[in-house]
Design a protein that fits this description.
alpha/beta, 7 helices, 239 residues
Length: 239
């Protein structure tokens, strides 16, 4: 198995991309903590998985989660920063509280996760951090200003962390999904979804497809890769 004896934390893991990644990691032999602000996952967990409710924008919650995980498993090899929320307001319409909440989850959350795991990964001799960004980190669409801002920032955080922690053998990469069948997408205006799907050569992506990319970046097969964007957007950004 490609992730045997590795340990991982995946945020936003109650469903969608996060849950698909957590399941794929467990099937490949990893022990996985699924973190999410929701109280329970949608369905029973794999026997290599545990679940913790916490808010990724809360620094104390991160510290507690990491401390408990490290105490139980004596290591942390992989972090997937997947948790995210969206807002469809434009820059001239966005409510400041809504803007700040998107920033806190999508941008501050990954920073807190990286800050929490790096000392332990450094102690263990390295690791893999995977940030889930978005095709909207690379191309624009009307509105969704806060989401654009955070995903663009996370793409640059990935590069910054990659060069900062290379000496510690910590690899930091991003996966760039396009339109994926997730609860977040299912909840948005169907006309928005249809418009994006029509602009995507491969159409709607499934969560398990994104999970396959995460397994690769988490595994030793990608040992020479850091600071990279793995484009998994179905061709959205090339048309």
């Amino acid at each position: 198995m490609r992730l045997e004896n590795k340990t991982a934390i995946v945020t936003g893991a109650a469903g969608g991309i996060g849950r698909a990644i957590a399941d794929a990691f467990a099937k490949e032999g990893a022990r996985v903590l699924l973190g999410d602000i929701r109280s329970t996952p949608y369905d029973p967990l794999h026997d290599r998985q545990s679940y913790l409710q916490f808010d990724v924008s809360d620094a104390v919650a991160w510290d507690n989660a990491i401390a408990d995980f490290y105490k139980e498993y004596n290591g942390i090899n992989i972090l997937v920063n997947n948790a995210a929320i969206t807002n469809y307001q434009s820059l001239d319409e966005v409510n400041l509280d809504d803007w700040n909440r998107v920033i806190s989850v999508n941008q501050t959350g990954p920073m807190l996760g990286i800050r929490a795991v790096v000392p332990l990964m450094r102690k263990d001799g390295g690791g893999s951090i995977i940030n889930i960004t978005s095709s909207w980190a690379h191309v624009a669409a009307p509105g969704v200003a806060a989401y654009h801002a955070t995903k663009g920032a996370l793409s640059m955080i990935t590069r910054n962390a990659a060069v900062t922690f290379a000496k510690d053998k910590i690899r930091v990469n991003s996966i760039v999904p396009g339109i994926v069948r997730t609860p977040l997408v299912n909840a948005q205006d169907p006309d928005i979804t249809a418009s994006i799907v029509n602009m995507t050569p491969f159409g709607l992506t499934e969560p398990y497809e994104i999970a396959a990319g995460a397994v690769f970046l988490a595994s030793d097969e990608s040992s020479a890769i850091t600071g990279s964007d793995l484009m998994m957007d179905g061709g959205y950004t090339v048309v």
